[in-house]
UniProtKB/TrEMBL annotation:
Protein name according to UniProt: Sushi domain containing 1
Gene3D superfamilies xrefs: Complement Module, domain 1, Laminin
Any one annotated GO CC term: membrane
Molecular function per GO: calcium ion binding
Subcellular location: Membrane
Superkingdom as given in the UniProt entry: Eukaryota
Keyword Transmembrane helix applies: yes
TM segment ranges: 662-684
Domain Sushi: 177-236
UniProt keyword Membrane, yes or no: yes
Listed CDD domains: CCP, EGF_CA
SUPFAM superfamilies: Complement control module/SCR domain, Growth factor receptor domain
Domain EGF-like: 35-72, 73-112, 125-162
Length: 687
């Protein structure tokens, strides 16, 4: 068969297409030749619609198929929950639809159990730590993405489980650190009251006859609940006695060389005498002397005309190299009663009067005048006087003196032709008993205590204060100062830093024993944010520069950027906790949190934030500002410690007649460019 002329009919390659179009037109068109109603043949999950003058069956939303014989459920979840519903979700398919559920530890921003993401709803982290007591006693809650962790607070240790821990799965409990009894130190005595809590300090003094050349010996209660022992020890003091000499016929003087010595040294003087007359008996005597002098001396009650051997050594537990001296006393006829006497001191407050005359049988009266002062107290004065009568040649008088006082004692022999007097000085040591009791704190930084002392007598108190912060390891504060008071119930308020743990040692200078008390100060408002203020009138917003604040008044926990209507700036309260996220408000008329950054995520130098960049900072969405509105941008710093929150705020920017941000302007520019490119392409295609 010959070929027909061109244009006589459609090309053969188009015939199959035309046949398919005709078939489709017949199936989807108006009632066919057989009179069948198309709408009556629609699938149960399809609807009949009028399109271009013809009736067709279309599967309902959520179903796919030809509309007449098949409409199968479309599984929207097949691409994965993250793609369909967003992060931290699970996707659930239903006939003709689906819904989303937030995973455990997250909640939907529409505050409902289920949601469809096309309304802007998403899953945000649930801050479980807003519930107090979640981590049990002594526990500290730390929020994490989708959950939370528990740690023991400063001063507590985890027991019976791991750290961090979860209260529903772990048996961990936080118990307060208690180091118990401090360790024993060889040749040392534990003095003063000590705290067994974290940071408590136990202090020791070396026993008599021992010293600590390296300094004071202390043991500290550590975060592990154990005492950290001192590396210093008490070593034995060996006292060397030299240059023993005799003066005034019956008095002995010597020198000591023991390096570092304790304030007082006790001596044992052993006296053994043999008279020249063999018929006389031996004279043996032991004399005890306590003094802090490096050239001690003692006058002995010796017989005239006698050969004596005197052995001088230190009393136990102190050890010494003993010294021995021998001498002979003068005969009786060489002495006369001239009223001269010497005084030696022993047992700190006792005096021994030694007459030069050996003539006995006469009574003598001594007059004592005692005046005591304390170098550290201008108004302190202890004065007394009395007479003392005795037949003895070497009487002993013990005085009732106050501790830690410098005394001048003047003794006069009454009735003597020359009225001979002797003046000596006595420095009494601090008392070995505690005179401070019932110490307690009030008003956070103040102390009061009970003083066990003579009424109306002034006392000086020495304070030694150590301050530390667990959240700021480089922080250390140490203070030492004195106060004076004549009250039996003194009070003092201390200049302490906020958000700090303190150990306070208090000692009356008239006592050797201090008391120690622990104080913890609460945090105060963090420093004001360092911001560069901007005012924007209709132009694009600049990038806002965020600088890290110093932890002067407590640990910094977070930084928040708040967006408020400008009209609310004058009534805004910085410590208001009602500000919510952008999506939780029906409108932004009440303001919202645009960004939240944890302190650990803020670099030490600075970082920049662009308002309206459509990014999430923490759980908050940084939404673009609405054009034409007036806004106030505020930076808020939050400090949190021991369940106390404090805030500080600064106005970062004022935006009037807000325009597009730099990022939005770039987007609009790119969109306009794309339209021009498309129109140009179409014009070239039509040529």
């Amino acid at each position: 068969m010959g070929r027909g002329p061109r244009g006589a009919g459609p090309p053969r390659r188009l015939l199959p297409l035309l046949l398919l179009l005709g078939l489709a037109r017949g199936t989807a068109g108006a009632p066919g030749a057989d009179g069948l109603d198309v709408c009556a043949t629609c699938h149960e999950h399809a609807t009949c619609q009028q399109r271009e003058g013809k009736k067709i069956c279309i599967c309902n939303y959520g179903f796919v198929g030809n509309g007449r014989t098949q409409c199968v459920d479309k599984n929207e979840c097949q691409f994965g929950a993250t793609v369909v519903c967003g992060n931290h979700t699970s996707c659930h398919n239903t006939p003709g639809g689906f819904y989303c559920i937030c995973l455990e530890g997250y909640r939907a921003t529409n505050n409902k159990k289920t949601f469809i993401p096309n309304d802007g709803t998403f899953c945000t982290d649930v801050d479980e730590c807003e519930v107090s007591g979640l981590c049990r006693h002594g526990g500290r809650c730390v929020n994490t993405h989708g959950s939370f962790e528990c740690y023991c607070m400063d001063g507590y240790l985890p027991r019976n489980g791991p750290e961090p821990f979860h209260p529903t799965t772990d048996t961990t409990s936080c118990t307060e650190i208690n180091c118990g009894n401090p360790p024993e130190m060889r040749h040392a005595i534990l003095v003063g009251n000590h705290s067994s809590r974290l940071g408590g300090v136990a202090r020791y003094v070396c026993q008599e006859g021992f010293e600590s050349p390296g300094g004071k010996i202390t043991s500290v209660c550590t975060e592990k609940g154990t005492w950290r022992e001192s590396t210093l020890t008490c070593t034995e003091i060996l006292t060397k006695i030299d240059d023993v000499s005799v003066f005034n016929d019956t008095c002995v003087r010597w020198q000591i060389n023991s390096g570092r010595i304790n304030p007082k040294i006790a001596y044992v003087i052993s006296v053994k005498g043999q008279r020249l007359d063999p018929m006389e008996s031996v004279h043996e005597e032991t004399v005890n002397l306590t003094t802090d002098s490096r050239t001690p001396e003692v006058c002995l009650a010796l017989y005239p005309g006698t050969n004596y051997t005197v052995n001088i050594s230190t009393a136990p537990p102190r050890r010494s190299v003993p010294a021995v001296i021998g001498f002979q006393t003068a005969e009786d006829d060489l002495l006369e009663d001239d009223g001269i006497f010497n005084i030696s001191i022993f047992n700190e407050t006792c005096l021994q009067l030694n007459r030069h005359s050996r003539k006995v049988g006469s009574e003598h009266m001594y007059q004592f005048t005692v005046l005591g002062q304390r170098w550290y107290l201008d108004n302190f004065c202890h004065a007394t006087s009395f007479n003392f009568t005795t037949w003895e040649r070497a009487p002993v008088v013990c005085l009732d003196l106050y501790p830690a006082t410098d005394y001048t004692v003047n003794v006069t022999l009454l009735g003597s032709p020359k009225g001979h007097s002797v003046q000596i000085t006595i420095a009494t040591p601090p008392a070995v008993k505690q005179i401070i009791s019932n110490i307690s704190g009030f008003n956070e930084t103040c102390l009061r205590w009970r003083s066990i002392k003579t009424a109306d007598m002034e006392e000086m108190y020495l304070f030694h204060i150590w301050g530390q912060r667990w959240y700021q390891k480089e922080f250390a504060q140490e203070m030492t100062f004195n106060i004076s008071s004549s009250s039996r119930d003194p009070e003092v308020c201390l200049d302490l830093h906020p958000g700090t743990d303190y150990n306070v040692s208090l000692r009356a200078l008239s006592s050797e024993l201090p008391v120690v008390i622990s104080l913890t100060t609460q945090i105060t408002e963090p420093p004001l944010p360092e911001v560069e203020f901007f005012t924007v009138h209709g132009g694009p917003l600049p990038r806002l520069r965020l600088r890290k604040a110093k932890e002067k008044n407590g640990p910094i926990s977070s930084y928040q950027v708040l967006v408020l209507p400008l009209a609310l700036q004058s009534t805004f309260s910085c410590d208001s906790e009602g500000t919510s996220s952008f999506f939780s408000n029906a409108s932004d008329a009440d303001g919202y949190v645009a960004a939240e950054l944890l302190a650990k995520d803020v670099p030490d130098d600075a970082m920049e934030i662009l308002i309206g960049d459509r990014l999430y900072y923490g759980e908050y969405y940084n939404a673009p500002l609405k054009r034409g509105n007036d806004y106030c941008i505020i930076l808020r710093i939050t400090s949190e410690w021991n369940k106390v929150r404090r805030y500080s705020c600064a106005v970062w920017a004022q935006v009037k007649d807000s325009s597009l941000t730099l990022l939005q302007m770039a987007g609009v520019g790119l969109g306009s460019m794309a339209v021009v490119i498309i129109l140009t392409f179409l014009s070239f295609s039509a040529v």
